[in-house]
Amino acid sequence: MIMKRLFIFAAILSVVMSAKAQFLDIERVNNASDLNLTGDNVEISRGYRGFVEVGYSIATTKYTDYEDYNLSMFTVSTTHGYQVIPNYLFVGAGVAYWNLTSYGESALPLFADVRSDFYSFGRWGFFADLKLGYSVAGEQGLFYSPKVGARYAITDKLGLNLGIGGTLFRMDEFSYDGGLGVGYFAINLGVDF
Prior knowledge:
- With 193 residues, the chain is mainly β.
- The protein has 2 helices and 8 strands.
- The chain has helices at residues 2-24, 26-30; strands at 47-59, 73-85, 89-100, 105-121, 124-138, 141-153, 159-171, 180-192.
- The protein has an 8-stranded antiparallel beta barrel with strand order 1-2-3-4-5-6-7-8.
- The chain is elongated.
- The relative contact order is 0.18.
């Protein structure tokens, strides 16, 4: 019940922050020159930046004690922070909801995020991303998640992201036997604003 309330709170907070960011930016977006329709490289400028992502992670680690469980998970996350160096360095923090599909459990990780967008040509660019955090509710434990992908710039402040990567989640519940570190192959689809 607490997990559901925390997730609903995080989702509402994400929508409110997104709406505020878009509202404050409406005058600039109304200027056609900011849409960069010329095909030139789209620069990600310094300042606030947010992300909302959904994804699916396939468990790549098998344990004989857990053969009856598919430890794969559906994920939803939101990250907010600051673009420190235009096009190159983003630093932020976020929250996610992980539903471990057939295991019947969920997790609520809080994390720090570092991202670099690089090599853009026209509206397309590539990125590398690293999240490091701890799940504070449900299945608790440390995790890290590196990811690479492509970004399509709709405007200089709005983009679509497709990423692939991995996650290693070490669940505290199993710490008596050295901890259960579950590896995942992940695919994510998101939007940044």
